[in-house]
Design goal:
The chain is 32% helix and 20% strand. With 297 residues, the protein is of the alpha/beta class. The protein has a domain at 138-199. The strands form 2 sheets. Strands 5-6-7-3-8-9 form a 6-stranded mixed beta sheet, with helices on both faces. A 3-stranded antiparallel beta sheet has the order 2-1-4. Bound molecules: adenosine-5'-triphosphate and magnesium ion (MG). Adenosine-5'-triphosphate (ATP) binds next to strand 2 and helix 2.
Amino acid sequence: MSTDPEVERHFHRMEHSGPHPGNRPRLRSHDVTPPAPSGAQPGVPAPAPPRPLLSIRGVDKRYRTAKGATVQALEGIDLDIAEGEIVAVIGPSGCGKSTLLRMVAGLDDDYTGAVEWRRPPRPGKDIGFVFQEPALLPWRSVAGNVGLGLEGRKDLEGAEQRVAELLDLVGLGDFAKSYPKELSGGMRQRTAIVRALAYDPQILLMDEPFGALDAITRDRLHDDILRIWERTRKTIVFVTHSVEEAAYLADRVVVMSARPGRIRAVHRVPLHRDRTPATRELPEFGRFAGMLRGELA
Ligand SMILES: Nc1ncnc2c1ncn2[C@@H]1O[C@H](COP(=O)(O)OP(=O)(O)OP(=O)(O)O)[C@@H](O)[C@H]1O
Ligand SMILES: [Mg+2]
């Protein structure tokens, strides 16, 4: 997305125009209360939590269709995302998950409410976006695709090294010179994920990144994401249709209701942060995924 002039223009507007004029503060929070830090003294006020990386405040989104009708896609969305957190967004088809992600990414600024950042995202640098279908450039090699956002850097050697490290991280070191058509679907998606990470964005946004893959490839990519997170501690927000994927990867799961999309609940995943394939066998995992499935029914 770093090369899309529309995106660059959007960020330029965002940086210079401040919060959206439709911004109205709302006293509403769907967030679960975080547990008190262990060792907290009674009567001694806990230190204020750090400001979230990203705050979505009272966001409403309406689309106007080609026939002139209005579709309310999102209503009253309030959500804070902390730095280093992995957040999954689930909900029925058409409830506005992609719309929400696109707004956070700055790909759509036609909404009311506010998307506020602790540090304003720099154009084309601070937001990595992964689409459901990996949008790779067919005429560029794997390394050429991953290095797309690093072009124009003076430190060419450093950029090449970063690309090589990222490809190794997802097991694609031997495919640096291959072309997208020579890769499997899972390899293409891994290329798209590390491309989004190449310029070290503040946040990685992924819209159903594993939706088109078979179950074994999906599981492999889940573990790639966990490894990437362990290395980079990147803030990650992703949309999925799979309650198991949400439970396996996320710290918190945002459940949205059918159109107009509202936040129905935000659940903290009751599992240790270190997840391994054995996590899927734990009774807590099954119970939590079952609870999410029940909420979607
Ligand atoms: N460009 C558009 N013009 C008009 N309506 C739109 C447009 N894009 C999305 N919508 C409508 O907004 C609503 C939310 O769409 P969105 O794509 O965000 O849903 P979603 O939750 O991502 O669905 P899915 O799970 O199927 O991907 C839908 O009712 C959709 O028809
Ligand atoms: Mg969608």
